[in-house]
Amino acid sequence: MMNSPVMKWASLIGLYLIIFLMLVEWLVPVVQLTNTGHLSLFLIFVLICLGSNILNLNGVLSFIIKMLYVIWFLMYVYMGTKVFSVESFMKIADEFVISIQALVDGNWDGVTDSFRSILFFVLLWMTIYLIHHWLTVKHSVLYFFLTTIIFLSLLDTLTNYDAKYAIIRVMVLGILLMGVLFINRLFTNSQVKWKPRHYAMLMIPLIVMIIGSTAFAYIMPKKQAMVNVPEPIESLVNWQNSQNSGIGKIGYVEDDRKLGGPFEEDNRPVFEATAKENQYWRVETKNIYTGKGWERKKGDIYVHTFGYGDEIPMSMKTGKKKNIDEATITLKKNYKFILQPNGLKTIDQPNDEKSFYIEIDGEKIRPTINEKRVLLPHYSMSYSTPEYSLKALEKTRKSDLKKLSKDYNQYLQLPASLPKRVKKLAVEITKDETNLYDKANAIVSYFQYNGYKYSRNDVAIPSKKQDYVDQFLFETKSGYCDNFSTSMVVMLRTLGIPARWVKGFSEGDEVISNDDTHHFVVTNNNAHSWVEAYLPGVGWMAFEPTIGFNGFDNVLDDVKDNQTEGTINPKQKENDQAKAEKKKKKKAEQKKKDKQEKAKIEEKKKQKQEKEKKHNLKQATNNQVNKAIIIPVIIILALAMLIYFTRRKWMPKWLLMKYRLRGHNNIPIDKMYEDLLKQLSLIGLSKAQGQTLGDFAKQVDAHFGTHHMSILTRAYEKKIYSKETSIIDKDKIKECWKYLINHLTG
Predict the structure, then answer these.
(1) What's the pTM?
(2) Which of 473, 477, 638, 703 is the most buried (most CB within 10 A)?
(3) For 617-631, what is each residue's pLDDT tens digit?
């Protein structure tokens, strides 16, 4: 028996250290493959759980410590604060209710990131409790060991995670863990007095065996990995891929490598804005078109850092200083980036320790604390909407493009596989225009009047050999913002005009307010993409090619006709007049069509707003009902968990009270004995398979330093085997039983 307290603790800590290292092998691939982040914080939680088990903390105290850590994690990661605040706590609680509702509705995409983290913590908590049970009660972790090996093997086979060395580490740790547990059971069951040299004599062969088998496995030749995936696994992968082609949820996502496919509407708000006027909200740009979607340059991301009130180094020019306005953003979704109004100058809220950086290649702005990305739930900004001179725009010429520096080559990139008919179409569309501004607008107009339609449902996904833009321009002619914006960027690039793809949000819906400010609600439905083109002498300028969207109205008509009739050839004058008349007529027709289109859009917008009002009212009612149901359920579940995890403390007291009320003399000895065995198992004192009751009683007496269990066991055996109940001293039995039960309560 292990009767040295120091060595007992050393052995226990060693076992839990091995368990911790095996749990690390679980967490590392999960965090890597799901882009979860904050691995170190999850590992700290694992250490807290294991530490509370080693120290045998009171169940209530252990529960409180873990819950406080989880709440702190949610505050730090999702609210950007290291301290508890009522506002942040209420926001987390609201996200919890929203996520529960999403799960009830079967909408997994509606579950918030904070709730996913809560589920992950609960899973870790339960897993560690189960391992603790296996370790202390069953004295075996074979299931955990085998599960870990299978998990890593599947990851290594079916994902890009390399688990080769992880499997080796787990094999070594698992064999060592099972060997240590076997040696401990050997000392306990044999009742041999524990001595360090005896323990070392058993450990040395185990360690030699582990080292030898590991070296043997490393030296032996390896069979080449199979080229083809086994048919059942291949079928599973193909089925999974087929599921991915279904209808997605609209909203902002960072991965744009594969564009296409239908989307469902999603009216949930993502942020609220207060500004002078409704406008687009820029998030980032992307430069590399692959034929299927957009990617960013691989490798290191270069950034500019800045603080509150500092001028932000944006590539797009801002407007005049006298036109500076202020906008405020209040997030409803945990975006760890800044929403940018047109002409963003500064972020103005110098009241905390955050700083910012802007990614040079994509111009996404992120708030940080100690170089870690954080959430900034509310912020204000200064901006001045850029204005462009029509006179300067009409002076832009194709010849000026040759004078641009090599820095703009990245905005001319196109895949070698791009079909030639895309460039041919771009040239055809713009052949009558002399300046670059009109060429860009010709592409915008082309979508309006050549049979293209805006749709979120009738949207194709290009096959393996198809180009995304080519398919849209020549085959489907149906799509949403990504189709129109990507096609325009690609066509501009074929003409040698630098262009980039922009992501963000379109104009939101204005909310009626009592003050003079304008408040706008932006939902997932407003997730949008558009185009920015570089025009020499003017700079970067935004264009809106998507049908049904208003776009940007920031061109100043400062053109004056300075020509005199005497300088114009009569024939030229006649041709110019005819051309001007034709252009005027075309403009009038276009204006009429735009007016009709705008009226249709306004009508649809009104219908949509009415529909959203009804939906929001229904959702608000549902939320109230759900809160009334969910909060009591959560409280009941929390109480149930607390009762279950602390049963080791309250069960003995409950038994004492129960037997006192019924009278000990009226309770059979066998019932008292069986209840005692159950309570002993909760503290890790379980009768081993094949162990006699007498031997087990000696083990218990050695643990408590008494002889009461042996007395109880002899009485129990008399009752079971000889039925001689008359000679049993019931008072003595009651005294022994009460002594042991009282010691179990701690």
Answers:
(1) 0.53
(2) 473
(3) 666 665 555 555 556
